[in-house]
Design brief:
With 126 residues, the protein is of the alpha+beta class. The protein has a single domain, classed as Aspartate Aminotransferase, domain 1 (Alpha-Beta Complex). It is 50% helix and 16% strand. The chain contains five helices and four strands. The chain has a four-stranded antiparallel β-sheet with strand order 1-2-4-3. α2 packs across α4. The chain is globular, with a radius of gyration of 14 Å. The chain starts with a helix and ends in a 7-residue tail after the last helix.
């Protein structure tokens, strides 16, 4: 059920999400860009949803709920993830979230990161 819903999210935001994969309840949402993944991660934390960041470049959100999770909780998690992806695609992420993500990745000292995150969330050429 989670995988099917996440695949719909992947199809809705093809410029953000590279792949959705996993087995059972453990699902990985791979982003094209690690900065996008970290901003999404931070925004979800602000909405009381905690995902892990994994992968060689910390560009994969890992959804790993408990075995006893209820359908309503899954729907809530996917709603927050969907809202966050919509904000990313519309470039409406609050600046405070971007700044927190910069601290998370240790790039706050580079001034181009703010501009990059505000203007080009998923541009792989940067």
């Amino acid at each position: 059920m989670i995988k099917l819903k996440n695949c719909r999210v992947q199809n809705r935001y093809p410029g953000l999400i590279k792949e959705v994969r996993g087995i059972g309840l453990m699902i990985g949402v791979e982003f094209f860009n690690s900065l996008t993944a970290k901003v999404c991660h931070q925004r979800c934390i602000e909405n009381q949803i905690l995902f892990g960041l994994f992968g060689k470049y910390n560009h994969v959100l890992r959804i790993e709920p408990s075995y006893t999770i209820e359908k309503e909780e899954i729907d809530g998690i996917l709603r927050v993830l969907g809202n966050t992806l919509r904000e990313l695609s519309l470039n409406t992420i609050p600046l405070s979230t971007i700044e927190k993500a910069e601290k998370l990745i240790g790039l706050g000292k580079y001034k181009y990161v703010n501009k990059f995150l505000r203007d080009k969330f998923y541009d792989e050429s940067v």
